[in-house]
Design brief:
The protein is an all-beta fold. It is 0% helix and 30% strand. The protein has a domain at 6-53. The chain is built from no helices and 4 strands. It has a 4-stranded antiparallel sheet with strand order 2-1-3-4, with no helix packed on it.
C-alpha cells in the first residue's frame, strides 16, 4: 500500500492514512471485519484486508497484527 493512501473500516467511520512501510493505525474497530485501502479511483488502486483480533485484545490498550491487502 502506498504512503498516504486512505484506510477505512467496514463502517467507514474509522479512517487513517497509510504510513511508512504500509502501517495503518485505526481505533474503535470491531474484533473482526475488513479494512479498505484506496489510493486512486480505479479498481487497481484499492485493496481489502480481512482481519480478526483475538478476544483478549479488548483488554489491551493497543493491538497489532499483520494482514495482506488484496
Amino acid at each position: 500500500m502506498p504512503f498516504g493512501a486512505l484506510a477505512t473500516g467496514d463502517s467507514n467511520q474509522s479512517g487513517s492514512i497509510v504510513a511508512d512501510n504500509g502501517q495503518v493505525y485505526l481505533s474503535g474497530m470491531p474484533l473482526a471485519g475488513k479494512v479498505r485501502v484506496k489510493w486512486g479511483d480505479g479498481p487497481d488502486a484499492q485493496c481489502v484486508a480481512d482481519y480478526r483480533l483475538p478476544p483478549e485484545s479488548q483488554q489491551q490498550a493497543l493491538s497489532q497484527l499483520s494482514v495482506a491487502c488484496r
